[in-house]
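User: Predict the structure for this protein chain, please.
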Amino acid sequence: MSVSFQNLGRSFGTGANTHPVLRNVSFDVEAGEIVALLGPSGCGKSTLLRAVAGLDAPSTGAVTIAGRAVSGIDARCAVAFQEPRLLPWKSLAGNVAIGVPAAADAGRRRHVVANLLNLVGLSKFSGHRPREVSGGMAQRASLARALARNPGVLLLDEPFGALDALTRITMQDLLLDVHAAEPTTILLVTHDVDEALQLADRIILLGSDGSPEPGATIVRTVNVPGARPRDRASTELAELRSSLLSSLGVSGH
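Assistant: Here is the predicted structure, written as structure tokens:
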């Protein structure tokens, strides 16, 4: 499903204590596209995701999914967070089953759970509790749970940020495999420029544009070249990485 941000702004607090976080954010995400949101901490990346999911309402502007405005918690979306947030007393299969729409009968529920566990490589661990598997495996289960409702839009908020470097790369590759099999629209919040370059079709950079008006806005949009999976050693991506880091105020060397 397509997503559209239309002059979205978000402020917290009231009166003299008002704190604008986002200002005049407008961009479109095509159905099936992967878009990464980059920017310094506190610039409103997660706030944008919450607005899409209907977990938070914009102060100004609007968000639409497939042309229909988001109003309240939106069943067309699913969210996966930095921590797996699995229920410790349930098996991995039981946790994935939580994501299956309540209207599904028992047979359909078992079928969806089995397919998703197979998709994320956890079929042999379906009966394990979260404490009995690694962090990467728990995060796979969290991703499967988010996919269980067959969302039109998958919202990923730093989903691999708590993982070690090697597991993180494995999870990035897994996400691309999942997207190839289930090409849903994905909005990804990340602080990792390399991750954005590997996964995204486009990168939206949020930050200050030098305006006297407070609040972050879009300062740069980057179309990432090359088909996925991309060569992590690509010279073209290395140059783009350096450019993005410079835009973030960090040396690319």
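The longest helix spans residues 165-181.
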